[in-house]
Amino acid sequence: MDHKKGQQPHKDMKDSQLEEFRVSDAGEPMTTNQGVRISEDEHSLKAGARGPTLMEDFHFREKLTHFDHERIPERVVHARGFGVHGYFQVYKPMTKYTKAKFLQDPSIKTPVFVRFSTVAGSRGSADTVRDARGFATKFYTEDGNFDLVGNNIPVFFIQDALKFPDLVHAFKPEPHNEMPQASTAHDTHWDFIANNTESAHMVMWTMSDRAIPRSYRMMEGFGVHTFRFVNDKGEAHFVKFHWKPLLGVHSLVWDEAQKIAGKDPDFHRRDLWEAIETGNYPEFEFGVQMIREDEEFNFDFDILDPTKIWPEELIPVQRIGKMTLNRNVDNVFAETEQAAFHVGNVVPGIDFSNDPLLQGRLFSYTDTQLIRLGGPNFHEIPINRPVAEVHNNQREGYHRMTINRGQTSYHKNSLGNNDPRPVSQLDGGYAHYQEKVEGRKVRARSDSFKDHYTQAKLFWNSMSDVEKQHIIKAFRFEVGKVRSKSVQQQVVDMFANVDLTLAEEIALGVGVTPPKAKAGDEASGTTMAGGAETKASPALSQLRTAMSPATRKVAVLAADGFDADEMKAVLAAFAEAKVVPEVVSENLGMIAGSDGSRLEVMHTFLTSDSVLFDAVYVAGGEKSIAKLQGIKEAVNFVTEAYNHFKTVGASAQAAGLLSGSGIHLADPAATSGYLTSPDEDTGLVIRKETEDAGVFARQLVDAIAMHRHWGREMQMIPPAKRTD
Ligand code: HDD
């Protein structure tokens, strides 16, 4: 079970440790929890078939008692989440900076367990709500567990952990009526924001597309806080941790996200589950930004302030390793629900900084597990066990699994040979970094934390026009749902300190007075040196992210009589590019192509929906197209994909169907619809009569790789509102 001394961990080590706890019931007789075989499981024991149930029915009592206790308290935040296994490999030894063993040897595969989550919603809430996403990674290293408990947003709402309960009370459903679920679009949240202006920077991120990711596989992860790397000479560097998805950073659009919440509330977990089941393993590169100890005060932000990023252009992210997620859990409760992450789980070579938010988290995570997992032995639950051996004098408590042998359970002792004994740093003993600290005991915050707007502005300045439009709309939606005019006005006045146009647009949308204050005025808080207000950090825009068609889900709309040659060429191009096609038609079963070949239908227009796909391909073939054109849901399917800026591929034969969807091909006279020519739209891939099916298929794949075709959205925005 636990790995033997001197043996290095490998990626299967956690798996084999879990193996001891796995149970298969296949072919086994049913028993009670005492192992007594059960002969009957449908009728309780009664005095006569219509008589009272008897207390002595031990099977009934046990089954009901267990059922009554099957829930544990959900996480107070991040209640809804999904976990998967994988492994991590470093690219090159990081010995110069850290002695952490899992960051030394590129041949070692360290097992990991990752839990992705939303923050605000209950355990049964929808996946696609607007929210930050948790990105918590447990590395089962040779030196013990290292937990990186981060988010997909690199900053946080508050600077001091003492305010965390207030923040969470404000964004959770309001206490008097428990509404709304999994949403910050309500009065108390925005009242908190307007009265706690340190939140400005993170709010810019939560109102951006980052808060509606397309997939857990397509979002960045951030450790948020400043940590320390410490090498074997005791030298330290400040470090920030990053996860960079190889598929790039991609998002949903807001209308789509809301509809998916109803059509498939499990959208993100299904996406992750299916990707892993089909061998499309999500991959994330591990990045570090490092600052020398003597550079601590060289920046126009305080590196201890968790509401600040270290702009990548200033301090580059070095990619030092890669994580591959390749195994789904066997049982969600046993693994994901019982996983206990703790930002304080560090290994030699990794240490903390004095970030007051981080320091407060060090208390909260163990405390919360005590109530959730019912006692101090939660580290013995299979998913939480380190692969490193555990020896100490801790005994007893609820649900103790280990049977510790021997007479002594204290240190120091003579009766037990003074074992287990602390060891020196050379033997792997953890030694805290010896930072010199002095000060008065004060309840105060450093002046260097008082700039609340410069980086919020940096974020805004770094957005493309289309991203800015999304932010404006998100604010209008969220603040538009606030009932208090006073709170709405406060929000508008607050964000005037970030950008005046942004604030004016919000004011217009929610019907309050446009702000008078200008960004950069006194009211905007202390502006730090460096004139950062006008700067941009290009790395913050999603438009610069990696583009790939791989694992994109495409709805193939087809009916009997589809063009078999075209279909063959398209499916071959999809397979080569790892695009995932799924056939949608009127009924389940098989459909026949022009050459009699048969294709299985995976979804109908009732069981599926346009919002669940990344793109649509309307198969060629006059008969098939004519059939689809007569189905209202099929026409709507295409309309919606188009309106969500997705790739739409079709043959020119489908002009009638497309026109019903508001897409008019090469018809300069068209007055409705958004585009008149496919040439203007990178996402409209139309196969002309004579065009080779293979060429068409490759163009389709290229368009799918682009993810969205924002030119279409900019055309949809009335000219007066366009910022270009
Ligand atoms: Fe937290 C859970 C991330 C601030 C207290 N947090 C939790 C999880 C993630 C984060 C990803 C879910 C872990 C899992 O999947 O089980 N939290 C963050 C980040 C923060 C942050 C990135 C700011 C940088 N958290 C934070 C503060 C406190 C907490 C300031 C309290 C002082 N967080 C908790 C908690 C949770 C938690 C109450 C709830 C369930 C749990 O810990 O296990 O202790």
From TrEMBL:
Kindly give the Gene3D superfamilies that the UniProt entry links to this protein.
1.20.1370.20, 3.40.50.880, Catalase core domain
Write out the biased-composition intervals (Basic and acidic residues). 1-25
- PROSITE patterns this protein is in? CATALASE_1, CATALASE_2, CATALASE_3
The cofactors named for this UniProt entry are: heme
The record ties this protein, via InterPro entries, to: Catalase, Catalase_AS, Catalase_clade2, Catalase_clade2_helical, Catalase_core, Catalase_haem_BS, Catalase_immune_responsive, Catalase_large_C
Keywords (alphabetical) are:
Heme, Hydrogen peroxide, Iron, Metal-binding, Oxidoreductase, Peroxidase
Q: What is its EC number?
A: 1.11.1.6
User: What domain of life does the UniProt record list for this protein's source?
Assistant: Bacteria
Which of the seven top EC classes does this enzyme belong to?
Answer: oxidoreductase
Query: Which reaction equations make up its catalytic activity?
Result: 2 H2O2 = O2 + 2 H2O
* Catalase core domain segment(s): 31-419
SUPFAM superfamilies hit by this protein: Class I glutamine amidotransferase-like, Heme-dependent catalase-like
State the Pfam families in the record: Catalase (PF00199), Catalase-rel (PF06628), Catalase_C (PF18011)
Disordered: region residues: 1-36, 515-535
State its role: Decomposes hydrogen peroxide into water and oxygen; serves to protect cells from the toxic effects of hydrogen peroxide.
Q: To which protein family does this belong?
A: Belongs to the catalase family. HPII subfamily.
The name of this protein is Catalase
